[in-house]
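Why run this: before we spend reagent on co-expression, it is cheaper to look at a predicted model of the complex and decide which construct boundaries make sense. The entries below are exactly what would go into the expression plan.
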Amino acid sequence: MGRPKAGEPELARDVIIDAAIETLKADGIAALSLARIAASLNVQTPALYWYFRSKADVYTYMSEKIFRDVLDSLDPELVGRDLLWAFGCAMRHKQCAIRDAAKLISMAGVSDEVRTILVPGLLARVADRDITASQARNYLTAIQSLSLGWAIFESNPATSEVMRRSGDGDIAYRDALARLVFGVVLGESPAVSGTDHQEPSS
Amino acid sequence: MGRPKAGEPELARDVIIDAAIETLKADGIAALSLARIAASLNVQTPALYWYFRSKADVYTYMSEKIFRDVLDSLDPELVGRDLLWAFGCAMRHKQCAIRDAAKLISMAGVSDEVRTILVPGLLARVADRDITASQARNYLTAIQSLSLGWAIFESNPATSEVMRRSGDGDIAYRDALARLVFGVVLGESPAVSGTDHQEPSS
DNA sequence: ACCTGAACACCGTTCAAGT
DNA sequence: ACCTGAACACCGTTCAAGT
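The model came back. Tokens follow.
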């Protein structure tokens, strides 16, 4: 391993992205360098430039992969506010599962796939009976903003100390999410099929 | 300039932080290096290490300065939800005024001053008649998360293209903020003295 | 006390060269 | 087509040395 191959290639875009996300999980975004990603693949750093144009490019596709995983975890039956709620829960679930995922997303660009296919597809499912296309965009922006900001706040040890270090962070998040999505003011979660996230069926 | 001084010092923590924020405004966070900050002060890079322990330290105090400016812009009479609303508006106003302010905050640490004085002071003012201390923390977390995430989303050119490129971003933000703070579902801004931000009176 | 100059390890990126 | 090795500019950080 590590020497030029004459057979099938050693790397692939998916392999690199997966390794990058594993490195992110393990060491956080501060340590996420191309050198470390390459080292985890037993490859020299410039090898990555055959598959990606820049480090920013790697970030973009890491972000796409995370977003796609979130979408895949959603019940395809869901529409409207129920879909928004499930999306908000799944987004938070993913950000808890991958360390610094929110910071990665905040630094990363948006791929063509996400911009022209995934987001429009999601918006189309959200725009149901009583939600216009414009409202769908606004709701989605609010939910993504809330989940992104919340994860970033929680990742800061000083902040999370201020903001209480018990297990009620989830409750507080779901409270805020419910206010954004359903307009309810307090307490009981709305009646939603699959109030938690679902794993992809594949 | 640039040579060791025998008189009063050329630098000071405030001067450095101000120069850093000006550099941030001008060139964005990607170009915010200690070398650039030092160059804008006609000083060598290691000089900054006399005043700050690390680049992270500089970031922390840049963030503190921004937070303090936001707090200073608030009407000291405000309490409870009215204060939360004004804080959410002022936070957004500041993030619009300083490029990449949200990304800076998301990367920066929290200073002792912010953690032990400014935030507790704000929380004490928020916890009014019908808001407990615990609810105040949760509300504040939600508002800071929303404003932070919103600014980050808007800063991404691809995202803001998807999310409509008209001037209604402000309306959408205030809508979401109103749902978080007051629980109202749509439209009219609540009756609040000073629905916009105020400049510091000093 | 306050700042410079030189040095170090690390990084992203490019590119000729190997297979 | 796919990967290495060497090189470049830049970065954060340390530290002895100057005033």
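Residues 186-202 of chain B have pLDDT under 50 and may be disordered. Residues 2-6, 9-11, 43-44, 46-47, 50 of chain B lie near DNA strand C (CB under 10 Å from a C1'). Bring this page to Monday's planning discussion.
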